[in-house]
Amino acid sequence: MRLVFAGTPEPAVPSLRRLASGHDVVAVITRRDAPLGRKRVLTPSPVAAAAEELGIPVIRADRLDATATSEIAALQPELGVIVAYGGLVREPLLSTPAHGWINLHFSLLPRWRGAAPVQHALIAGDARTGASVFQLVPELDAGDVFGELAIDVPADATAGSLLSALAADGAALLADVVDAIAGGSAVSQPQVGEPTYASKLGDDDGRVRWDEPAEAVLGRIRGVTPEPGAHTTIDGARLKVLAVAPAPAGAPQLAPGTLALHEGQVLAGTASAPILLETVQPAGKGGMRAADWWRGLRSAAPVAGS
Q1: What is the Cα–Cα distance from 203 to 225, expressed in whole angstroms?
Q2: CA separation for the pair 272, 285 (Å, rounded)
Q3: Model confidence band, residue 28 (pLDDT cutoffs 50, 70, 90)
Q4: What is the Cα–Cα distance from 188 to 177, expressed in whole angstroms?
Q5: Residue 276, φ and ψ in degrees, nearest 5
Q6: Please, are residues 196 and 111 in contact by the beta-carbon 8 Å criterion?
Q7: Which three-class secondary structure state does DSSP give residue 7?
Q8: How far apart are CA 174 and CA 186, in angstroms?
């Protein structure tokens, strides 16, 4: 089947590779090269780099506008596939391929429609999540579902690790759906349930709320790791929180935001039980063990700001 594939970040790469091994991917649409690093070097997206490695033509476009639509229509695709592209597909492009467009989305729809489903699932403390392949329609993430997979959320999962796992498993699910569409056996079902929405996260979403219970604090920190990143303030200075865990049994109770060293480990108080700070990053420095950071503090009783 002749496909066009739209995607940008690393989690879309497994799907591109899987589809390219069994179908004719006539073009990849991805966002334009972006400046990265301290030197702001223009760098291709992970999907662009993978496409060039696979010998697939690349259309760089930050918006699927009239120009992009014309380029895609000229390729006469039978199906459009989108995985984390970062832009919307609207008419007339939505109807350009004979079979329209399908989307691999990293949630169990209709829960967490939108830009950041994995992050919101962790912040909300969802015990289960997954991936869905659905037909694109004008309404956001509202189309009929061709297939889904569900997994239990690992207790120590971060948004980064969970997204990597779903990207790998989701690529196989997506390939099965594309094969079914190509073979004429695909069947879709309307979404069932009350939708929830996963808006794009900003810096304030990464601010740790120490006055919340431990489960909520852990979920927020893990849900914003690695992006946009969890952070707090200590004596007015910003501190990134890179890795956390539940406090060990017998840890002392602490007031929300109060930090303490207990048996060589740094604890932080919440509205319920304390949590363990494992890895942190002070402003202007690299990541380090929280116990090493603690030894360099001037304050004898530091308190984290919300």
Answers
A1: 12
A2: 31
A3: very high
A4: 10
A5: -100, 125
A6: yes
A7: strand
A8: 12
Predicted pLDDT of residue 300: 64
Q: What 3-state DSSP class applies to 127? A: coil
229: left (phi over 0), alpha (psi -120 to 50) or beta: left
- For 76-113, how does the pLDDT look when each residue is reduced to its tens digit (9 = 90+)? 999 999 999 999 999 999 999 999 999 999 999 999 99
Residues 6+ apart with CB under 8 A from 6: 28, 29, 30, 64, 80, 81, 82, 83, 85, 87, 89
pLDDT tens for each residue of 125-167? 999 999 999 999 999 999 999 999 999 999 999 999 999 999 9
* pLDDT at residue 302 in the model: 77
Tell me if 1 sits within 8 A of 182, measured CB to CB.
yes
Give dist(CA 235, CA 75) in Å, integer.
59
Residue 207: burial class (beta carbons within 10 Å; 0-12, 13-18, 19+): middle
Amino acid symbol at 229: G
Quick one: three-class SS letters along 196-218?
CEECCCCHHHHECCCCCCHHHHH
What string of DSSP letters covers 64-90? --HHHHHHHHHT--SEEEEES-SS---
Q: How far apart are CA 182 and CA 248, in angstroms?
A: 53
